[in-house]
Amino acid sequence: GPGLKYAALLITTLLAVATRLFMIHQPASIAWDETHFGKFANHYILRQYYFDVHPPLAKMLIALAGLVCGYDGRFEFKEPGIPYGETSFLGMRIFCALMGAACAPLSFLTVYEMVPSVSAATLAALIVTCDTALLTVSRFILLDPILMFFVSLSVFCYAKFDGCRTIAFSRRWWLWLASTGLALGCAISCKWVGAFVVAYVGVL
């Protein structure tokens, strides 16, 4: 019933959030490609010109998260391993972690839309939650968790749109069509590999 569905959705969502936020402050130093994307956030916060091969949306969102959480864009992000010290870097990490965590409930809802089975939807959400690659990449200041969120959102919106095929051109049909287009636009605006989800939806 609906109660079981929402209970499973809530539990898997909380589990995804907990695993991604657990000890999010560690390491308290620049990790991996944070050295690149932290610099890009600096440029946006300080309104400095720069060029990068990736589209801007994810970097702008990281910069916004840092700005909202008190980061001033002054930390240099020279190379991996340099301690953050008193720098307010956690806001950007937490934002990326929450975007990555949101992929779990989106997976649940997508599978449930396709196959109305709580067991299948829960399994999908748990796979996303427990996948160590998805877990790890969501815990740092990177473009990937933001890209994954918009890719997951695109597939979910398309599944909802596809479910409206019997009520074509209704208000709900237009809503999910527009939502799919918006999510696809956001995905490709994070990294060029977002074009693959555009192709996926196009093939379907």
Give a quick set of tags describing it:
mainly alpha; 204 residues; globular
Shape descriptor: globular
The tally of beta strands, per DSSP, is 0
Question: What percentage of amino acids are in beta strands?
Answer: under 5%
Indicate the percent of residues in helices.
55-70%
Radius of gyration: 18 Å
Subunit organisation of the chains: single chain
Quick synopsis:
The protein has ten helices and no strands. With 204 residues, it is mainly α. The longest helix is centred in the N-terminal third of the chain and has 20 residues, at 2-21.
Structural topology:
Blueprint: H1 2-21, H2 34-45, H3 57-68, H4 90-101, H5 103-114, H6 118-130, H7 132-137, H8 144-162, H9 171-188, H10 195-203
Helix pairs in contact: 1-4, 1-5, 1-6, 2-3, 3-4, 4-8, 5-6, 5-8, 8-9
Write a structural description.
It is a single chain. This protein is mostly helical. Helices cover 65% and strands 0% of the residues. The chain has helices at 2-21, 34-45, 57-68, 90-101, 103-114, 118-130, 132-137, 144-162, 171-188, 195-203. The mean pLDDT is 96.
